[in-house]
Design brief:
Layout (H helix, E strand, L loop, with lengths): L1 H19 L2 H8 L19 H13 L7 H8 L4 H8 L5
């Protein structure tokens, strides 16, 4: 019984974190399957690893990552915690 309760708690926490990042806003530029270069300038997110995506998202947030879309992306991720960005990164890419 204890394992079931802990599993439910973990699942609920993961779902809450994933729900925090608005994937629809990302998909508007990156495509529903993450293969579209955003505004013709970004990497193919679908080919990036989860770790690369997490590094990129957190780097956009703190200003240490990015090329021509750095300013735009900073505004998109600034409202999320590093934990939310990390969890979201695990749901996309490879």
């Amino acid at each position: 019984m204890k394992k079931i309760v802990l599993s439910i708690v973990a699942l609920t926490a993961s779902t809450a974190l994933m729900a925090a990042v608005n994937a629809g806003a990302c998909q508007g530029c990156h495509g529903a399957d993450w293969t579209k270069p955003a505004l013709g300038k970004s990497k193919d997110v679908a080919l990036m690893t989860h770790a690369e995506i997490a590094t990129a998202l957190k780097g956009y947030k703190d200003g240490t990552y990015g090329g021509p879309m750095k300013g735009l992306m900073k505004g998109q991720v600034a409202k999320y915690s590093d934990a939310e960005l990390e969890e979201f990164a695990q749901t996309i890419g490879k």
